[in-house]
Amino acid sequence: MKDQTSGHALYFVIGFLCVSLVITLILPVVRTLLNDVVSKKPTIPTSMIVEPVKYEERLTITMPGQTA
Question: Are 47 and 41 in contact (CB under 8 A)?
């Protein structure tokens, strides 16, 4: 019974060590990826100045059969 209990304990200890190693290796990579994403946000234009076009000055209307 003692051998089985120590085997289970060793299994849990090795499992926790593997999980902690994976976390310590992957956590910095995830942090750098998140920092890169945050620092490279797209620029959103604040406002655009739109002027109405004065089309009456440039507009020419021709009837069928007329030459411009």
Answer: no
